[in-house]
Amino acid sequence: MRIDLHAHSTASDGTDTPAELVRNAAAAGLDVVALTDHDTTRGYAEAIAAVPVGLTLVTGAELSCRVDGVSMHLLAYLFDPEEPALLAERELVRDDRVPRAKGMVAKLNGLGVPVTWEQVERIAGGGSVGRPHVATALVELGVVPTVSDAFTEEWLADGGRAYVEKHETDPFEAIRLVKAAGGVTVFAHPGAGKRGRTVPESAIAEMAAAGLDGIEVDHMDHDEETRARLRGLAKELGLLTTGSSDYHGSRKTCVLGEYVTDPEVYGEITRRATGAFPVPGTGGA
Fold first, then answer.
1. Which of 86, 196, 218, 284 could cysteine-pair with 259, CB 3.0–4.6 Å?
2. What separation, in Å, do the N-terminal and C-terminal C-alpha atoms of the chain show?
3. Cα(65)–Cα(50) distance, rounded to whole angstroms?
4. How are beta strands 279-280 and 56-67 bridged, if at all?
5. pLDDT given for residue 235 in this prediction
6. Can you give 3-17 as a three-state secondary structure string?
7. pLDDT tens, 52-61?
8. Tens digits of per-residue pLDDT, 230-281?
9. What is the number of alpha carbons within 13 Å of residue 109 lying toward its C-beta?
10. Beta-carbon count within 10 A of 6 CB
11. Are 15 and 248 in contact (CB under 8 A)?
12. pLDDT for position 277
């Protein structure tokens, strides 16, 4: 089985619609793909309706969190999307995304970059707006060559010249909320140092004690040394280890199935989840 547990659609900052995402996942030879848009479940219905035969869809989300002043992302799988407390927290994070993006546009204007909110809004296309949309605007304007090049201290990285903070959930509260909604939690790309400061291992240990299920190890932003260190940490803490592409369509260079999750780990994730179940394909729309 080939299992990719981290992919984004136009419901947040990917370029594939949810339906295109599942069709492209099947075409890439995947058996399982997870839809993990940022702080939203808005793409679920379209993706579920389009899942091709032979592919299984795992519903999820990538939650924006912050611990000790460091931003981090928590992948949540197979939770009940209508559970009131988790839904309210996701909406709180999502509602802060527009004023935050407008604040980044204002900062960029102050730096002499002629980006406009209308441009960013067009790029977002109704999705959950975020830094990658602002970064894409910088690419369109020729300020940086790629989206990744916008995530530096010069521009949009944490603490960068045009960075604006947003509401982010305490990860311990996020773990509690996801668990209460029947879901499973995995710390996304914990060693992605080129994105900015990373969460110390001591904090990951505290999260593990609080119920964190796993960490994403095989990821494009982790080199071999980082992967080996994270595998050792996971073994020490009794955490599951996953692998995934963090696919964003044409917005990033990664491809579906570039990194995958062990079928036994996937089986354990589905065993632990009680809020929702994987969706087998029935032919799609």
1. 218
2. 24
3. 30
4. antiparallel
5. 98
6. EEEEECCCCCCCCCC
7. 999 999 999 9
8. 999 999 999 999 999 999 998 888 999 999 999 999 999 999 999 999 999 9
9. 10
10. 28
11. yes
12. 97
pLDDT at 252: 83
CA-based torsion, 220, 172, 124, 106: positive or negative: negative
pTM for the full predicted model: 0.87
**Residue 13 near residue 132, CB atoms below 8 Å:** yes
CB 4 within 8 A of CB 244: yes
Whole-angstrom distance, CA of residue 265 vs CA of residue 83? 25
Q: How many whole angstroms separate alpha carbon 173 and alpha carbon 38?
A: 17
